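Example record used in the benchmark description.
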Amino acid sequence: MNWEKVIMKERTDKFEASSWASNLMLAAAVVAAATPMLLGDRLILIAASVATECSVLFQSLSISLQRLLS
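Model output (structure tokens):
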């Protein structure tokens, strides 16, 4: 009888975790869909800024790696 309760509790915990993950993915999809409408033209500026920052980061990593290897 105890084993049945343990098995049912494990199944319930797995279902709750799955449900929570599903809700999180749904919320992320809604935010991703609404972002362009909320930000409008500013989204282009933000994306350009992020791209610039990433290129600077990769360049500094490349320089550090070259110094490390030589």
